[in-house]
Design brief:
Structural class: mainly beta
Strand content: 25-35%
Number of strands: 41
Length: 672
């Protein structure tokens, strides 16, 4: 958690120094060059474009909730940014807001509310980020930075951090521990307290559940407050991994979910429950949605989790979840919100930081990613919220047909006027992206590589292979350039040629002469060598484009087939296997199909010529260990050597004086 509150060095107590920093942090004057440079620097990496992609990298057409995402991006205390991400998943607005932000949302008309780390208060600002109000000014306590709620009557709900000095020595703590107590108050516009609720009154410090050994004890760490459909209050206590519901009438505790003293029996498969959660919401019908950060440690994962609660049987059941296929884990922060189209928008808190930026993901009820971006390095995100089209980004020109009446506009969106200036029968309302060029309109022929988006699909046409089954498929290509290639395999069985006595052939010296059918050159376009050989069979492998081909195979001795083999490669064929044929035939060779037979041929189509099961042994009759029943020699034969002339001692083929000398030399030798 980016917890400035606990960083004692972060903010000096001197009022003068506070004023100096506050002056330095006033909004910068609008500068078009600066704004564009900031937008370029902060642009997220689009991991999954809106609509999602299928397994081949092509647009999947998944549903995406329309609207713009308001982000409070944080890289450091001075590098905090208010940003708007448009429907193309690109930032359309960014403003640096040092020490202010964390979570920013619309307030009263024309106003936003955000947390000011300098004042440690929630402040209300206009669209130029000029402060117009500061909340809880009459209270000495610091505001908690997680959330604040505005009611229709102008009153608001806020949580302040009350520092209570308590003696915790009897439970292993210090005698003067500072306990951070969440004090939730409902205030009217004059800051009169309409109702209040103290965390320690309902959830005292408990050494069995809380870390009490520190000088500052944040035993609950409140991080979320929402109202359910019945007016009950849902609270999230991160440090106890617990969600609490308060009765709407008196804010007394109705139930506790999770943690060590849960009122529910939770069914959650191998996950075993949520931990360190954020952003709890009521979905109605007894269901809640939350961002489950996870327990931490090796192998930890975060997820968006929907639970179905039964407050009669006191059971809680995992009804839906999304944990990222990339095994994303956020140690802190994070949000999950259900959208109008039933998708879920997830901000992954501190996941991936500081090496990378965190992610924002939109997923369908089926768990398919319909949009995902990754923020710049070290950027984390407490919450992400999507607002309707025209609310935070829109056209402000009164004469435009799409002028926005929203009082919360931050980003200017393209204005539409419903005119046809170039006479191509398309207006900007119809989708004409350049009404000054008649060759540009939706569906127009798009010329690749000219850097002009003629068909108004958001990008210039890219030439390449668009066949997903081709080996060189290019997912970025939008126009097929006729370059797609398919892997073609063909095998030729030479077993009949071998049986005729051609045992000395090196089958890898055979060739496949191949050309296109319309090739007027009498010489073959390709002369292919086999890629492999086994079982008297060679395999040819080649990459070919779509078309009709013909050719013949040539034996190692140079004799060519008399038949002409023809085949066709079509778009979408993928890997093409032409099968196995006998040399100079269109069918497989006959042979034994029993893999245990000595004459086994794996390419044979008909069972013919079997010689019996394989029996290994010595198959040479002259050997002393000849095995009459063996049909496969195993290299064990033993041969006895005989000598027809025993007196030829030097074995030169004749009995001479030399043989006598060899005999005399051996006289007196002892024989073993």
């Amino acid at each position: 958690m980016l917890n400035f509150y606990h960083a004692d060095w972060f903010w000096p107590n001197s009022v003068l120094v506070r004023c100096l920093i506050l002056a330095l942090c006033l909004p910068l004057a609008h500068n078009t060059f600066w704004a564009q440079s900031l937008l370029n620097d902060l642009q997220p990496e689009i991991l999954v474009p809106p609509g999602g992609v299928d397994e081949n990298g092509l647009p999947a057409g998944l549903p995406v909730q329309s609207g713009d995402v308001l982000l409070s991006m944080i890289q450091s205390p001075t590098s905090m940014y208010a940003c708007v991400m448009g429907e193309t998943s690109e930032l359309v607005y960014a403003e640096q807001t040092p020490f202010r932000g964390f979570y920013m949302k619309p307030w009263r008309p024309g106003e936003f509310v955000w947390y000011n780390y300098i004042l440690r208060k929630w402040t209300v600002v206009d669209s130029q980020f000029t402060t117009v109000d500061t909340l809880t000014q009459s209270f000495d306590h610091d505001d908690d930075y997680h959330d604040v709620h505005l009611f229709e009557d102008g009153s608001y709900l806020v949580v302040m951090l009350e520092e209570l000095v308590m003696d915790l020595s009897d439970m292993g703590g210090v005698v003067d521990a500072v306990v951070l107590n969440p004090l939730m108050v409902h205030l009217d516009e004059q800051e009169n307290v309409l109702r209040s609720w103290s965390g320690v009154d309902h959830f005292p410090v408990d050494p069995a559940m809380d870390l009490v050994s520190f000088s500052t004890v944040d035993h609950l760490h409140w991080n979320s407050v929402q109202f359910d459909q019945h007016g009950g209050v849902l609270l999230s206590f991160r440090n106890r991994s617990q969600i609490v519901r308060l009765w709407p009438d008196d804010w007394s505790v109705h139930w506790k979910l999770g943690g060590m003293d849960s009122d529910f029996v939770l069914t959650d498969g191998d996950w075993g429950g949520f931990a360190r959660q954020h952003d709890v919401h009521d979905l109605g019908g007894g269901r809640i949605l939350l961002f489950d950060n996870g327990i931490g440690g090796s192998g930890s994962l975060s997820r968006a989790l929907e639970l179905e609660l039964d407050t009669v049987a006191w059971t809680a059941e995992n009804a839906w979840q999304f944990n990222h296929p990339d095994e994303v884990y956020a140690e802190a922060q994070g949000s999950a919100i259900r959208l109008e189209n039933n998708n879920t928008l997830i901000a992954w808190g501190t996941a991936g930081t500081p090496e990378f930026g965190t992610r924002v993901t939109e997923v369908t009820p089926e768990g398919e990613i319909s949009m995902e971006v990754r923020l710049p390095p070290s950027a984390n995100l407490y919450r992400a919220r999507k607002y309707p089209v025209g609310m935070v980004a829109g056209c402000s020109v009164d004469s435009a047909v799409n002028v926005s009446s929203s009082p919360w506009l931050l980003a200017e969106a393209p204005c539409l006027f419903g005119v046809d200036n170039d006479g191509d029968s398309w207006t900007d309302v119809d989708g004409d992206c350049n009404d000054l060029d008649a060759t540009v309109y939706p569906g127009a022929p798009d010329l690749p590589g000219d850097e002009v988006d003629q068909d108004c699909d958001g990008q210039d046409a890219v030439l390449g292979c668009t066949d997903v089954s081709a080996i060189n498929f290019d997912p970025a290509a939008t126009v097929d350039g006729g370059t797609c290639l398919h892997e073609v395999e063909f095998r030729v069985d030479f077993s009949q040629e071998i049986a005729e006595g051609n045992l000395s052939w090196n089958l890898l010296q055979s060739t496949w002469a191949l050309s296109t059918v319309n090739d007027v050159d009498p010489q073959p376009a390709l002369s292919l060598q086999p890629s492999n050989a086994a079982w008297h069979t060679v395999q040819f492998t080649v990459l070919l484009g779509s078309g009709m081909y013909e050719g013949h195979v040539i034996r190692p001795d140079g004799e060519a087939e008399s038949i002409l083999r023809t085949f066709e490669v079509n778009p979408g064929d993928g890997h093409v296997d032409l099968g196995t044929s006998c040399f100079n035939q269109t069918q497989p060779c006959p042979g034994c199909t029993d893999p245990m037979d000595v004459a086994f041929n794996p390419w044979a189509a008909e069972d013919e010529g079997c010689q019996g099961w394989i029996v290994q042994g010595c198959t040479y009759p002259d050997a002393s260990n000849f095995a009459a029943g063996a049909n496969q020699d195993d290299g064990t034969c033993i041969f006895q050597i005989t000598n027809d002339c025993p007196t030829d001692l030097d074995q030169d083929g004749a009995v001479t004086v030399t043989d006598l000398m060899v005999l005399l030399a051996s006289i007196g030798a002892l024989c073993s």
